[in-house]
Design brief:
The complex is a heterodimer.
Chain A: H1 2-41, H2 63-72, H3 74-105, H4 111-123, H5 129-139, H6 146-150, H7 157-168, H8 173-180, H9 185-193, H10 198-214, H11 217-222, H12 231-241, H13 246-280
Helix pairs in contact in A: 1-13, 2-13, 3-7, 3-10, 8-9, 10-13, 12-13
Chain B: H1 2-37, H2 54-61, H3 63-74, H4 78-92, H5 100-112, H6 115-125, H7 131-138, H8 152-180, H9 184-192, H10 197-225, H11 229-234, H12 246-256, H13 260-286
Helix pairs in contact in B: 3-12, 4-8, 4-10, 5-8, 8-10, 10-13, 12-13
The chains are: A mainly alpha, B mainly alpha.
Domain ABC transmembrane type-1 (chain B): 69-281
Main location (chain B): membrane
Subcellular location (chain B): Cell membrane
Chain lengths: 281, 293
């Protein structure tokens, strides 16, 4: 008995040590590629493909960032990305918050039908949606416009579900008290209900922010003019244009991923909660 | 009272109208319109004709399409690998040891990064003179440089590896949420009974994680069959047709070659397959009682 008691701290010590070794090894696996990209971006004029390959920076210089910034017209691409992302996030937040509200709290004919149709779209995905979207946007004369980029994903069924689930958790007294005071349905929603669902709105805003920021395919399809590309799309272009200037490409890539990583680092608490909430519902 | 219901009904539709309009145009319409489109030879260039089931006959004789279907189904291999590793990772970061939150964040970074950036980094790491070949040769696993992404036998598996690397953090977080819902007295009870670590994982953790495992498997399965981004950015289906997946093939036929009719027919076939698979998973899953939404 005494022996086991004396062994215990040693055993937990070893277990803790092994756990940290595993955690660090895994962190190297997941973070290593980013750190390596960072190191390539900080070594101007260095060839990535030497033998042995350059892994750690032997010197640090921001020259690649300066050069690629001047060459690529980054302010323009950042502006495009921000406009597309803001437009996409705002439409998603408003449209999903509005569409889900009656589905969760009102009694009206057709409620179940609407809900069933929405559920059905999640089970039968369209594999050719992008083709029909292209034809639709063309018919609306919206090709080559930011509105054309945002419109097909201006509201997602997933977001409507997430909001509906949140509204269901709000006691009906809130709406009743608003009615007592004679407020209109819209005012009740805007002034009483919306403040209560802020966390869910934050989750939708964050998820869609990352989605729109990182989206590359649809912008390339719908925008004819490459100067309208968002960062992720412009990056594919940069990669094709000077495939041997590794430092520049690395710096350009770092510039494009840093904003979203920073946003994530500051908001990860909401983000993680939202991700978890999506399963439980 | 009747009047109240009517005004409530009006308000309901007023609230939903803008959102439902978008959903109708960009979610319902593609599903509906894709069906008649697949019976035509619609392309931007020439006149459109109704051609019956010609597209479908052509599809089943199109060896590239069959190969692309096969590659998409083969891609499912990535699903169990991701799920097992993600569960192990979630167990690893579930402890309350100092600094564990930093590690969670680190593992999540590939998820928030764009696939364009991820693909670029890995294509460099995996190139002939890249870091991966250097390290593998150093430890003696390979004798000469391998062109991972331009060798038919390795390219598809390398893409799966990248999919896995980028997705692990996402599933880890989902499982972590599940793990944190398991009451700790269950573990204590097991420990009092003298159960070992492995037994606890097998008999307590995994059964209680079942709804999460089902949900994650379903979304990861859908993602794998419809895999597009990493393939399109890195190999465009090559070398040859070795990484041609059905989504990439449909994109090539439709958006790049303007064969909208044929691409719609291919899409319809793939949708039917995915629909059948998801019904299968739902059925399989019904006992577990999972409600993802």
């Amino acid at each position: 008995m005494i022996a086991t008691n004396r062994m215990k701290p040693l055993k937990t010590g070893i277990r803790l040590f092994v756990t940290y070794i595993l955690l660090i090894a895994l962190a190297l696996f997941m973070m290593g590629p980013f750190l390596w990209l960072l190191s390539v971006s900080l070594m101007p004029g260095k060839n990535v493909f030497t033998n042995p390959p350059a892994i750690l920076p032997t010197f640090i210089d921001f020259d690649n960032y300066v050069k690629v910034w001047q060459f690529m017209n980054f302010p323009r691409y950042i502006y495009n990305t921000v406009v597309i992302t803001v437009l996409g996030v705002v439409t998603n937040v408003f449209l999903s918050a509005m569409t889900a509200y009656p589905l969760a709290t009102f009694r009206f004919k057709g409620r179940n039908l609407v809900f069933t149709l929405l559920v059905a779209t999640m089970i039968i995905p369209s594999s050719t949606a992008i083709i029909v979207h292209y034809l639709t946007i063309q018919a609306f004369h919206l090709t080559n416009s930011f509105l054309g980029v945002v419109l097909p994903s201006a509201v997602s069924v997933f977001n409507i579900f997430l909001m509906r689930q949140t509204y269901i958790g709000i006691p009906s007294d809130v709406r009743d008290s608003g009615k007592m005071d004679g407020a209109s349905e819209f005012r009740i929603w805007w002034q009483l209900i919306l403040p209560l669902v802020k966390p869910a709105i934050a989750v939708i805003a964050l998820l869609d922010m990352m989605g729109f920021w990182n989206n590359f395919l649809w912008p390339i399809v719908v925008l004819d003019d490459p100067t309208k590309y968002p960062l992720a799309a412009a990056l594919t272009y940069l990669n094709g244009q000077f495939s041997y200037n590794f430092g520049w490409i690395a710096a350009g890539t770092m510039i494009s991923v840093l904003p979203i990583i920073i946003v994530f680092l500051f908001t990860q608490r909401y983000y993680m909660e939202g991700i978890a909430g999506a399963v439980k519902g | 009272m009747k009047n109240g219901m009517r005004s409530e009904s009006f308000a309901a539709w007023a609230f939903m109208a803008p959102g439902l309009l978008i959903v109708a145009i960009f979610v319902f319409w593609p599903i509906i319109y894709g069906i008649p489109l697949s019976f035509t030879d619609y392309s931007v260039i020439s006149e459109t004709h109704f051609i019956g089931v010609d597209n479908f006959v052509k599809a089943f004789n199109d060896s590239n399409f069959i190969i692309s279907l096969w590659n998409s189904l083969l891609y499912i291999i990535v699903v169990p690998v991701i799920q097992i590793l993600a569960i192990l990772m979630a167990i690893l970061v579930n402890g309350k040891i100092p600094g564990v939150k930093i590690f969670r964040t680190a593992y999540y970074l590939p998820v928030v990064t764009s696939m364009v950036a991820v693909a670029l980094i890995w294509s460099w790491l995996l190139s002939n003179n890249g870091v991966i070949n250097f390290m593998l040769m150093k430890i003696g696993l390979i004798n000469e440089q391998v062109s991972w992404l331009s060798t038919s036998s390795t390219a598809l598996f390398v893409l799966m590896f990248i999919t896995m690397w980028k997705g692990l953090g996402y599933y880890m977080m989902l499982y972590l949420a599940g793990l944190q819902n398991i009451p700790s007295d269950l573990y204590e009870a097991a420990r009092v009974d003298g159960a070992g670590r492995m037994r606890v994982i097998w008999n307590i953790t995994l059964p209680l994680l079942r709804p999460h495992i089902m949900f994650c498997t379903l979304i990861s399965l859908m993602g794998a069959i419809r895999i597009f981004d990493e393939v399109y950015i890195l190999t465009k289906g090559g070398p040859g047709t070795s990484t041609l997946t059905s989504s990439v093939y449909i994109f090539q036929k439709g958006i790049e070659q303007f064969n909208f009719g044929y691409a719609s027919a291919l899409g319809l076939i793939v949708s039917v397959i995915i629909g059948a698979l998801s019904i299968f998973v739902f059925r399989f899953n019904a006992k577990g009682g999972v409600n993802p939404y």
